[in-house]
Every structure is written in structure tokens, then in C-alpha cells.
Design goal:
The chain is of the alpha/beta class. It folds into two domains: about 120 residues, Leucine Dehydrogenase, chain A, domain 1 (Rossmann fold, 3-Layer(aba) Sandwich); about 170 residues, NAD(P)-binding Rossmann-like Domain (Rossmann fold, 3-Layer(aba) Sandwich), CATH 3.40.50. About 45% of the residues lie in helices and about 15% in strands. The protein contains 15 helices and 13 strands. The strands form two sheets. Strands 1, 2, 3, 4, 5, 6 and 7 form a seven-stranded mixed sheet that branches. The N terminus is likely disordered. Belongs to the Glu/Leu/Phe/Val dehydrogenases family. One of its GO terms (molecular function) is nucleotide binding.
């Protein structure tokens, strides 16, 4: 390995962003072409858990911005989901269709293993269950492995299920009942998670309209579910006559312009970091749009891979993911009681748990 630079919060650390992260690790293995960054935001509640994103970032600064935001989001997501886990994330810089090889994945696995269990990795955009099996050949702190390898398999199943539960709770909060029957739901992104979500929505009687930048993904969803409608792009979907807008692709999709154009009453989707900035959340509320915090409702996947650490049971993990319904209602209740936006209420619940439960790790055991 030609480089293993760690920038952390301890003495001698050199990192100018002051993001509150415990540790940021830059990983470089020139022979395999690996360029990766692992960010650990917090281990207050336990080892940091978060997926590995394989993406062709424009430059290293873009990759750093993404991994810092994603790892912080994972700390809050894991805390809000009631898991005894901290938050982390990793990004591999490159086009997975071009640069992904066994050697690169195994080199990455060795860097993860060098952290000694401070960080557990899993799937994310650009990485899949077979990739986790390869990484696990070098690193035992790997989740989201195949069923054949003793893992939980595809975590997108319970990610979609958790979003569905959050959507049902949001419908109860808005319209007085959890059924989505007759509601028109726009799903932006019908890849790993969006495809499963579409099936759940149709089974509940919702009308579904979809869009995706991938024609292949659209063709696959229309072949599987002929009842769905399709629009050309996300801008068209946002301006459509919807009850619910569900972003299920990459983050940052909700900016000021999108919020102003949105006609739906509810935003509830699987994408991470959907708000371009905090002001957009306030703008949505002022326009009468309820925003279900993304890291609250999309926690089903991390619940699934966390369960794998203990010996996976799908039914047990699904039961945990079903609790997203109640947690979503709790967030809305606290938001109303404390005059907060739902995203701020969710942050407050997560921060209180990290502070109160995390403090207990300071009580030494024999």
C-alpha cells in the first residue's frame, strides 16, 4: 500500500473543515488504482457503520464533501433507528463499470480492516452484494454479504420497506389514515430501492408515476409493473399533480427552485441528503409541504445490515424496520410540541440519544 494517511481530531491532526468528524482516512493503492476516503463521524454509540459508494467524482474535493456529509448522516440515522452504532461512510473514486476489479476491492478491504473494527462497511451506490463478498475476503468488518456467504443479502429490500412505513406514517399525520390507496406517488429513481418501493406502493393501492435517467431501469420497471406511468425527467415529475414525491436516487435533489415548483403535499424518499441546504426544509414547510427526514425513513437498509452482525434473521430485521412508522410519528409529534421543522426534530432526537446513551460508554466495565 503506497499511502494510508489519517486526518483525525487528535493532536497533530491537519484538517481545516472543522466538521466534527473523529477521523478521515485517505486510502491509495496505485497498482490496483484504488483511491478511497473513509470518514468516521462518531463512535459514541458503537462502531461506525455506513456503506461504500463507488462513484466517478469530478475531483477529490467533491468526494470529500460527499463522504463527510454522508458519514454524518449515518451517525444520525443509526442513532434515530435505535442502533448501538456510530456513523461512517466511504467513497471509492472512479467509474465502477470501468475501474472495479477484485484487486481494487480487496485493497480497499485491507484499508477498512486496518481500522480494527472502528468502521463496518456495506453496500451503497455503485457497490453490490458480490462486491461485499470480495471485500470480506480481506476484512471481517463487512456487512451486506450474500446469503450464501452467511450474510443478509440485498439491503434495498428493507430500505424500501422502511420508506414505505415512513410514508404510511406521514399519510396518517397529513390525511388521518396510513393507507396510500388512491394517492398519486412520484418515484424519482427506480434502481435498487425504488423498484422495491414501487411494488409496495402498488400493493397498497397507490397510483405510481416514475422517472429515471437510466432507460434500462425504466424498461425493467414497466415490464414488471405495467400499471406505472412514466415521465421523461425529474423536473417533469416535480411539476406533476402528485400527492407524494419520493426521491430515490442521489441526494441534493431538493433545492430552492425545486421546492417552489413542487406540487406534492409530502416528500418521502430513499435518497440520502435530499435537501440542498437547511433553508429548503423551511421553504417546503412554508409552502405546506411535509418533509419526512430522509435519514429517518431510509434506515431499513442499515437496520438489515446491522442485524447481520448478530447472525441475520430477515423477520427480526423486518420487525425492527417496521418501527420506522412509530418513530416517524414521534418526530412529527415532537416537531409540533417544540415548534420545529421535522428535520430539526429528528436531529434533536438523534443528538439526545448520542449524548445520553453514548455517555454510558464512559462507565468502565471490569
Amino acid at each position: 500500500m503506497s499511502e494510508h494517511a489519517t486526518r483525525g481530531s487528535g493532536a497533530g491532526a491537519v484538517f481545516s473543515r472543522h466538521t466534527g468528524h473523529e477521523q478521515v482516512v485517505f486510502c491509495h493503492d496505485e497498482p490496483s488504482g484504488l483511491r478511497a476516503i473513509i470518514a468516521i463521524y462518531s463512535t459514541a454509540l458503537g462502531p461506525a457503520l455506513g456503506g461504500t459508494r463507488f462513484y466517478p467524482y469530478a475531483d477529490e474535493d467533491d468526494a470529500i464533501d460527499d463522504v463527510l456529509a454522508l458519514s454524518k448522516g449515518m451517525a444520525y440515522k443509526n442513532a434515530l433507528a435505535g442502533l448501538d452504532l456510530g456513523g461512517g461512510k466511504a467513497v471509492i473514486i472512479g467509474d465502477p463499470a470501468v475501474h472495479k476489479t477484485e484487486a481494487l476491492l480487496r485493497a480497499y478491504g485491507r484499508f477498512v480492516a486496518s481500522l480494527g473494527g472502528r468502521y463496518y462497511t456495506a453496500c451503497d451506490v455503485g457497490t453490490y452484494v458480490p462486491d461485499m463478498d470480495v471485500i470480506a475476503r480481506e476484512c471481517r468488518w463487512t456487512t451486506g454479504r450474500s446469503v450464501e456467504a452467511g450474510g443478509a443479502g440485498d439491503s434495498s429490500v428493507l430500505t424500501a420497506y422502511g420508506v414505505y412505513q415512513g410514508m404510511r406514517a406521514s399519510a396518517q399525520h397529513l390525511w388521518g389514515g396510513p393507507s396510500l390507496s388512491g394517492r398519486r406517488v412520484g418515484v424519482a429513481g427506480v434502481g435498487k430501492v425504488g423498484r422495491h418501493l414501487v411494488g409496495l406502493l402498488l400493493d397498497d393501492g397507490a397510483e405510481v408515476v416514475v422517472t429515471d435517467v437510466s432507460e434500462q431501469a425504466v424498461d425493467r420497471i414497466t415490464a414488471e409493473y405495467p400499471a406505472v406511468d412514466v415521465v421523461d425527467d425529474n423536473d417533469t415529475l416535480v411539476r406533476s399533480d402528485l400527492d407524494i414525491y419520493s426521491p430515490c436516487a442521489l441526494g441534493g435533489v431538493l433545492d430552492g427552485e425545486t421546492a417552489a415548483a413542487l406540487r406534492a403535499r409530502l416528500v418521502c424518499g430513499a435518497a440520502n441528503n435530499q435537501l440542498a441546504d437547511h433553508a429548503v426544509g423551511k421553504q417546503l414547510a412554508e409552502h405546506g409541504v411535509l418533509y419526512a427526514p430522509d435519514y429517518l425513513v431510509n434506515a431499513g437498509g442499515v437496520i438489515q445490515v446491522e442485524d447481520e452482525i448478530h447472525g441475520f434473521s430477515f423477520e427480526r430485521a423486518k420487525a425492527k424496520a417496521a418501527r420506522i412508522f412509530d418513530t416517524t410519528l414521534d418526530v412529527y409529534r415532537i416537531a409540533a410540541e417544540e415548534n420545529l421543522l421535522p428535520v430539526d426534530a429528528a436531529d434533536r432526537i438523534a443528538e439526545r440519544r448520542m449524548a445520553s446513551v453514548g455517555r454510558l460508554r464512559g462507565i468502565l466495565l471490569p
